[in-house]
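explain this:
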Amino acid sequence: MRAILAGILLACAAPAHAEAGGPYIPAALAIPAVASRPEAFVPDGFSLESQVEGDLGLAGQGVAQVYRNAEGRRALLLGARGAQGFQATGWGFVLPCATCGVDLPPERNLELAIRQQRVVVIDRSLSASEQISTSAELTLSYDSAERRWWLQSLRQLTVFERTGEAEESRIDYETGTTRDAVGRYDGQVFFAESVRSEQIAPQKLPLDGLTLY
């Protein structure tokens, strides 16, 4: 998962998983906009895989949808359902592909949630032979003034099952605060034993400018 962190820090120029990376595919209609249904914004070849609903601070019921194509590439559509139809506010490729979980099946390598008006993407992978599990939690926040979604923060956890050791990295892109820690993970909670914090320049990373997969 360090590839994800490094890729984002390097202006998101490199895909997180080389075997899944691809060019940015724009939405079928310009975003932000309103259409009768969310599928109107989805390019040909993608079909709905899953969705979650919640409060995104938008007018109407907030919706985060996962779309997937035949190659297993996934895209994220964000918006809200209202009286006028579906208001699309974001589209991008920050979701792990169907095979990116390595030894995890597609239904277990991605978790999507809406928390405190933010969208949280959890990308998981497991190497059974090396007994290493990894997860990356990306938090997206919406700027109503700019009408755009931004990557707010990233938390990355790597667990070495054989030794019980774990490494955690956190970065807040709005403040530029980073934290790297080494410790242990009990299956639910990470306990840091050594911590290194750093301050970098804040970054504004838009959802529609990220092509991680």
